[in-house]
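User: what does the whole thing look like in 3D?
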Amino acid sequence: MIGPKKLSEIKQELKEALAKEVRNPVEWLERQICELEKQKKATPASKEVFESLLRLFQKPKPKKRRKRRVART
Amino acid sequence: MRWMAKRSPPRLSNAAIRARENRVARIAEQLGFVGQVEYRHVYSQSGGAQYGQAPSPEGDILIVYAEAFDRDSETDEFSLEAIIAHECGHQILVRHPRIARMVAGKISPMGEEVVASIVGALLCPPGPDRDNLEYKAIFELIAHGDESTAASRRVAILRGILGELL
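Assistant: Here's the predicted 3D structure for the full assembly of 239 residues, as structure tokens:
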């Protein structure tokens, strides 16, 4: 069961837990990714976990607004 | 705070319920679920879906509840695909020959939830569903006492191993 905990709260608590443990979570995550890139045995899948955590700390890109086309008459 | 379902789901037409049944069946098939798939228009305490193991994979059951659709319609909530992928993760955990052998008798109920989320993440294409199931796996470990850095590393290692087995 995925459980009733809301995703927004899971994300928030995850961010807070990392921020509590390491001074700069973004720097720490980037370091983990670099270290895994150097390791020959590391699989890309392992690296992707830290990349997804990094996305948690990045602001979502604003959605591009579509230009409205005016029909020619 | 928990996702709180109202006392009962809204009334839907037979056509709308059939559309939900079809959507659930389509997603389960795409994610590789083997067995029976049901949609029940009731609220449960499960968060949205449940997997049930039968004597054989063909008898296994995936039940999706109304709150899965409520969550799917909310922003920053688990999508229906992610909810079903997590349950497919439970099936793989007990049905995949190598994974089932690896975890048989060695995994706690909490560990099962963690692995089901990681396997579910691997079943999803790269994108928000995959990310969200990984967050869920890490969160689960933290909620049970792991440090966040250790939990992240454990999930990264497990994802590497499971990714090679799948």
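In plain terms: The interface with chain A takes residues 1-4, 45-50, 71, 76-78, 82-83, 86-87, 113, 117, 122, 126, 130-132, 134-136, 138-139, 142, 147-149, 152-153, 155-157, 159-160, 162-164 of chain B (CB under 8 Å). The longest strand of chain B covers residues 36-40.
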